[in-house]
Write a structure and sequence with these properties.
alpha/beta, 8-stranded parallel β-barrel, two-stranded antiparallel sheet, 12 strands
Length: 360
């Protein structure tokens, strides 16, 4: 298991992060994904830690708080020392019927950090993330609340999830102006079958040095190997058979392009052996992400030990330059303004610079 520096911080995290959306009873918004009890969840935590994963991500809304409770209990039952694991959680989603039981307001965040710590049985989390965009709360109010949380010792770092590039950049500017804690990371959807992040957000992350935590790297299970153009049977989506997407068809994916990629990844996987077994489509999809320089860690979740083992083994998959080029070409985003204008004008400017002196 390789490790990476977490954005511009001194924190070191594993290149895979264990996601805990499957922990807890099948209830609430994430009910179709959840369902694991304490024993099953603890077994996955043990498996992840034994494989070298030191980073675990949860959220207050996962199974309406049960994911946090189970994660905290699992770490205690396994005797994991607190400095040996990086724990991240999130807040913003709806936690009750009241008007103030959601959002990124000071009122909500200061309540939810304490509630999350109580469920986890911890005195701090290592990363506290805003789970989405709250159009009602001024960014400065959110950032000042997060600063108080960091200064109180209840969180070591702060991050954000599912924000647009302009929103993140505005927040970074406000933090710099006020001299307060700034976002260290973004948690976002990114996959070889969905590269929208590369239009605006990836350049921002590279420019400002934020870490990237990838969620749904297999496009909600579409790249798990269960789905192909043939098994879809001409339907508008993978809505037949078993698997997560059969009951929770999310996130949205351009299917024709995805099926072209799956066919290519089947061919690539067929020529590789991982831990003495043929590689899988899922492993190739995860490996593609691990080759992307902007990626800090890839969040993997599972309901069974064999699923988690398959994902962990993706760290062993080596892709050649030709294989990466093939997948990049099949998954390339359509050209879009102003990107094509940048490329055209950049070519003009490149001609103005003299070629570098080369030894002969």
């Amino acid at each position: 298991m390789r490790t990476n520096r977490f954005g511009n911080t001194g924190l070191i995290v594993s290149e895979l992060c264990l996601g805990t959306m499957t922990f807890g009873e099948s209830q609430g918004r994430f009910g179709p994904i959840a369902g694991l009890d304490l024993a099953a969840s603890t077994a996955l935590v043990r498996q992840a830690i034994d494989a070298g994963i030191n980073f675990i991500d949860t959220a207050n809304v996962y199974s309406e708080g049960r994911s946090e409770e189970i994660l905290g209990q699992a770490l205690r039952d396994l005797g994991v020392k607190r400095p040996d694991v990086v724990v991240a959680t999130k807040a913003m989603g709806t936690m009750g019927p009241g008007a103030n039981e959601a959002g990124a307001s000071r009122f909500h965040l200061l309540h939810e950090i304490d509630a999350s710590l109580a469920r986890l049985g911890m005195d701090h989390v290592d990363l506290y993330q805003i789970h989405g965009w709250d159009a009602l709360t001024p960014i400065e109010e959110t950032l000042r609340a997060l600063e108080d949380i960091v200064r109180s010792g209840r969180a070591r770092y702060i991050g954000v999830s599912n924000w647009a590039a302009w929103q993140i950049m505005k927040a970074l500017g406000i933090s710099e102006r006020l001299g307060i804690a700034s976002f260290a990371s973004l948690q976002a959807y990114y996959t070889v079958a969905g590269r929208d992040l590369e239009r605006e957000i990836v350049p921002l992350l590279q420019s400002e040095g934020l870490g990237l935590m990838v969620w749904s790297p297999l496009a909600g299970g579409l790249l798990s190997g269960k789905y192909t153009r043939a098994t879809d049977g001409g339907n508008s989506g993978p809505n037949q058979g078993e698997g997560r997407r059969a009951v929770f068809d999310f996130p949205p994916v351009e299917l024709d392009r995805a099926y072209d990629l799956i066919e290519a990844m089947q061919e690539i996987a067929a020529g590789k052996m991982v831990s003495g077994k043929p590689a899988t489509v899922a492993q190739v999809a995860l490996a593609w992400l691990l080759y992307q320089p902007v990626v800090t860690t890839v969040i993997v979740g599972a309901k069974r030990a064999d699923q988690l083992a398959d994902n962990i083994a993706a760290c062993e998959v080596e892709l050649t330059a030709d294989e990466l080029s093939r997948l990049d070409a099949l998954s390339a985003l359509p050209r879009e303004y102003p990107g094509w204008m940048f490329a055209m004008q950049g070519a003009y400017r490149a001609k103005a610079a003299s070629p570098r002196r080369v030894a002969r």
